[in-house]
Write a structure and sequence with these properties.
Layout: E1 12-17, E2 35-36, E3 39-40, H1 41-50, E4 56-62, H2 66-74, E5 82-86, H3 92-98, H4 100-103, E6 108-113, H5 121-133, E7 138-144, E8 153-157, E9 160-165, H6 172-175, E10 179-188, H7 189-195, H8 210-219, E11 224-228, H9 240-260, E12 264-265, E13 272-273, E14 278-279, E15 284-285, E16 291-292, E17 296-297, E18 302-303, E19 310-312, E20 319-321
Parallel strand pairs: 1-4, 1-6, 4-5, 7-11, 12-15, 13-16, 14-17, 15-18
Antiparallel strand pairs: 2-3, 6-10, 7-10, 8-9, 19-20
Helix pairs in contact: 3-8
């Protein structure tokens, strides 16, 4: 009698596409290493992927990406990431296909861009639960934007996904849709790598788009799902403006976490706390110390203009009198 893999035992590989050049950022720094609240964008993506408990992590990088490799190595990630080189930057579909051998024979593949759509870890877990529960071939993490611009639209009929359309190719009716696809997607391994070689680069960028693999799967009659996620109303680091928008979303989430943990921020809008900072309950952050980086603050302490005798220190959770 044939056996099937249950939703609780299906194996997972997380594939993170980190080879993009980020030309519009106009920077010598790799796009995925631009800092977001004290950590590179790629670090945030890896942490979100780890929340899905993957059996493997594959990171696709460009040639000579020693700085990306070194950064990832410093994070001491488990499972240890496998690096795959994309010798030519020919698009996200080409990058995902380059990971095929490293992925191996897992059941599901979670694909994300390394330049950070700020999807929450709990949303990715919900996406995978939905993907497996309904036995979808592909499941897209989608979000709703006030101004979707050229982002890919999710077209539904009675809640069912029937098409995905690039904003640049969309009709006026489809452009009115506010639900767009993010760069987080889950696939069944077999259909993904069967569909990717069918993708063509007949677009303005002459690149192979991973999104086109979803369209191919839909045309074949495969079940494709889309799960709405919270991105704070922004997507990606495609420009300095996009980077600033993502930082604002993450900063707001960090501040909210501390507020909900019993920390008083007298001016949250002017307070910048890095993602690794720990602050004890009943601490107060006053107005003249808006930035906390790589530090810890013991409970019942104050930082800022009302308590000038205290200052924050590094990870050692103390406040020194100076």
């Amino acid at each position: 009698m044939a056996t099937t893999t249950t939703t609780t035992t299906r194996s997972l590989a997380a594939v993170i596409l980190a080879a993009g050049k980020g030309k519009r950022l106009k920077s010598a720094r790799p796009k995925v290493l631009h800092p977001v609240c004290g950590r590179p964008a790629l670090w945030h993506v890896v942490q979100t992927a780890l929340a899905a408990r993957p059996d493997k992590i594959v990171i696709v990088v460009a040639q000579n990406a020693d700085d990306v490799r070194a950064a990832v190595a410093s994070w001491k990630i488990t499972p240890k990431p496998v690096f795959v080189e994309q010798t030519q930057q020919l698009g996200t579909g080409h990058a995902a296909l380059a990971a095929k051998s490293a992925v191996g024979r897992v059941d599901d593949v979670l694909v994300a861009n390394g330049d950070f759509d700020p999807v929450l870890p709990e949303d990715i877990r919900a996406l995978l639960r939905r993907h497996r529960r309904v036995d979808a071939v592909a499941t897209i993490a989608s979000t709703e934007l006030r101004d979707p611009g050229t982002y890919q639209r999710i077209v539904r009929d009675g809640g069912r996904v029937i098409d995905v359309v690039e904003g640049t190719d969309a009709s006026a009716e489809i452009r009115r849709i506010n639900e767009v696809g993010t760069n987080w997607m889950a696939f069944r391994r077999g259909p993904l790598f069967a569909g990717l070689p069918k993708v063509r680069r007949n677009n303005k960028q002459h690149e192979y788009y991973l999104n086109d693999a979803v369209s191919i799967l839909l045309r074949s009659g495969a079940r494709v799902e889309a799960v709405l996620c919270d991105t704070g109303g922004t997507l990606g680091l495609n420009s300095r403006g996009g980077l600033a928008a993502v930082i604002a979303v993450v900063r707001g989430r960090i501040n909210a976490k501390h507020l909900n943990s019993g920390v008083t921020l007298l001016d949250p809008g002017a307070t910048y706390i890095d993602v690794d900072v720990r602050i004890g309950r009943d601490s107060t952050i006053y107005g003249d110390r808006p930035g906390l980086c790589d530090r810890a603050v013991r409970p019942d302490r104050g930082l800022g203009d009302r308590r000038p005798e205290y200052r924050a220190v590094r990870r050692d959770p103390r406040i020194d009198r100076r």
